[in-house]
């Protein structure tokens, strides 16, 4: 693995994660408030689904 590639991936992650707070800050804040009151199990399911979706996308795009 190339360190430059990892740095680019992290930079792209930062750009993607910042799109919603930039475009719709009120909706993003509302979503974060809803997430903050979810129980741990539900939050873990959301995280697992996100990871699996990302892995599927990586596999599909490779």
Keywords:
single chain, 62 residues, mainly alpha, 3 helices
Biggest sheet, in brief? Answer: none
Separation of the first and last Cα atoms = 15 Å
The tally of domains stands at 1
Overall average pLDDT: 94
The poorly predicted ranges are none
Order of helices and strands: HHH
Number of helices: 3
What would your notes on this structure say?
The chain is mainly α and 62 residues long. The protein has one domain. The protein has three helices and no strands. The chain has helices at residues 3-23, 25-36, 40-61. The relative contact order is 0.06. The model has no long low-confidence stretch (mean pLDDT 94).
In short:
By secondary structure, the protein is an all-alpha fold. It is built from 3 helices and no strands.
Q: How does the SSE layout of this entry go?
A:
Elements: H1 3-23, H2 25-36, H3 40-61
């Amino acid at each position: 693995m190339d360190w430059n590639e990892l740095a680019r991936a992290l930079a792209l992650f930062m750009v993607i994660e910042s799109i919603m707070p930039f475009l719709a800050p009120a909706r993003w804040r509302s979503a974060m408030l809803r997430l903050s009151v979810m129980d741990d199990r539900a939050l873990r399911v959301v995280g697992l689904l996100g990871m699996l979706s990302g892995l599927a996308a990586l596999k599909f795009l490779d």
